Protein: UPF0391 membrane protein AB9R89_00190
Amino acid sequence: MFSWGITFLIIAIIAALLGFTGVAGAAAGAAKLVFVVGIVLFIISLFTGRRGP
Structure:
């Protein structure tokens, strides 16, 4: 999940350097969304994960 976020972040940085502001904004938004979803899923897995006997 976090690899997708890093991928979108790298795309956003490269697009920003090349001047594609629309693409950079969209990729940055997607990166933020993927990171937030990943963190939420991680927290959920902490509470509902495997527990001892």
The chain has one domain: 2-46. Helices lie at 2-18, 21-48.
